[in-house]
Write a structure and sequence with these properties.
Radius of gyration: 16 Å
Number of helices: 4
Binding site for substrate: 48, 55
Strand order of the largest sheet: 6-3-2-1-7-10-11-12
EC number: 6.3.3.2
Enzyme class: ligase
Keywords: ATP-binding, Ligase, Magnesium, Metal-binding, Nucleotide-binding
CATH class: Alpha Beta
Number of strands: 12
InterPro entries: FTHF_cligase, FTHF_cligase-like_sf, NagB/RpiA_transferase-like
Shape: globular
CATH architecture: 3-Layer(aba) Sandwich
Largest sheet: 8 strands, mixed
Length: 189
């Protein structure tokens, strides 16, 4: 199936989730994330959820990481909608955030970190195929981000939905993920 068809289908499915269903899925995803071994990482880039899009709420996971892995540096992004690039900043327990024009929470006054320092990226997505090819919102932010990372960076994704068989219109600039966390299972590609 083509990306745009999948994007429309899975956005509609996610938007149809009730608050109670979202809460259950968030909890089940948190359990999958907590079962993963984060101990080898020094820096982890996490996304901050856009509530209106019903993205997985990463905040309970972030707070858990701060407690369980206090030595782990967490990063989040500021989006440049002109260049479709992300810049990366330290996420602090007491750090200030503000929503950009798209409703994405972004750090204010935080320390910027070079992409070369990132060990793993936890990316939002709608759905992936069984080869790890992602369908996001279609702007290519994370494909550009992944391409700029070190070759050994761990590319991780979160979705409420299990992988589909195949995305038919994958192209050369698409960068697949290696691990997908879903509410019921963690997939390795």
């Amino acid at each position: 199936m083509e990306k745009q068809t999948l994007r429309n289908q899975y956005k509609a499915q996610r938007n149809a989730l009730t608050a109670a269903e979202l809460q259950q899925l968030d909890l089940a995803l948190l359990q999958q994330l907590q079962a993963y071994d984060w101990s080898a990482l020094r820096t982890l880039h996490v996304y901050l959820p856009i509530e209106k899009f019903k993205e997985y709420n990463t905040w309970p996971f972030i707070k858990w990481l701060w407690q369980q892995y206090p030595e782990l540096t967490l990063l989040c992004s500021v989006s440049d909608f002109q260049s479709h690039q992300l810049r990366h900043y330290k996420l602090q327990v007491d750090g200030q955030l503000q929503e950009n024009a798209w409703g994405i929470p972004e750090p204010v006054g935080a320390e910027e970190v070079e992409v070369s320092e990132i060990d793993a990226v936890l990316a939002p997505l709608l759905v992936v195929d069984k080869q790890g090819n992602r369908v996001g919102y279609g702007k290519g932010f994370y494909d550009r981000f992944f391409a700029a990372c070190r070759p050994d960076v761990k590319r991780l994704g979160l979705s409420f939905f299990e992988p589909v068989e195949n995305i038919t219109d994958v192209h050369g600039l698409d960068v697949p993920i290696q691990v997908l966390f879903t509410p019921g299972k963690t997939f390795y590609f």
